């Protein structure tokens, strides 16, 4: 079961007008993959548009800065420190979204709950929010948060249940036990097949033996999650049909991508449909491509 829930624009609007006794804090988790665009997400947040009273959650800040691999889950100490800087309280209701068609919002929602924040929702999509006529704040701001700093404290980590490590995955591949899992990779098909170069220097293209492709955008429609479980199931089924891949609902699942970001988009979809449990290979291809022996770098169609 997911640690966070999807919320439609309509339900989010209703939540804002409900007397919950708690702050409802929108969380903009926009992240662009290209290095030259990394600062653009924050610049757009401050200068163009955001949901009123939103904070900006920077994935490149909320990660293990000492790891050689990008976006590895940070320590609770780092998480607490950065949450405090944003002025978040432990009992805040957080509603996560992004401005890039659900490319990175799921990662933020996953990280927030994996590291112990109690109540988190993921907006089904900002595209739908706009299309349905809900308001955006277009005044310029000079900070990534409208709130004063807090002494945020979480003592809970669900990483053990949520994450599969390189060592664990390597063992499954080496022994052939990976066949007992649904194992999906969310990168684009050319990178998965080894037909296009990896964008990270020194990292080969290809995939982990036993993995099947499911490009993350295929579980979305117009950059949004469907408002219904049946709608999400339909998108997953269409992807499976397109690539000739298989999903056995009786098996546990493992998801990965390039650096653990878009894998969370599909992880969210699987969990919304009850295809659980699902663990994230946090190091993803950024780690596997650098660490695995050449015999464990597969190319072409092998499923």
From TrEMBL:
Domain of life where this protein originates: Eukaryota
GO cellular component terms, semicolon-separated: mitochondrion
InterPro entries reported for this sequence: Rhodanese-like_dom (IPR001763), Rhodanese-like_dom_sf (IPR036873), Thiosulphate_STrfase_CS (IPR001307), TST/MPST-like (IPR045078)
UniProt cross-references to SUPFAM superfamilies, sorted A to Z: Rhodanese/Cell cycle control phosphatase
Gene3D superfamilies in alphabetical order: Rhodanese-like domain
Residue intervals of the Rhodanese domain: 53-138, 177-297
Signal peptide: none
Keywords: Repeat, Transferase
Biological process terms in GO annotation: tRNA wobble position uridine thiolation
UniProt GO molecular function: 3-mercaptopyruvate sulfurtransferase activity; thiosulfate-cyanide sulfurtransferase activity
Protein name according to UniProt: Sulfurtransferase
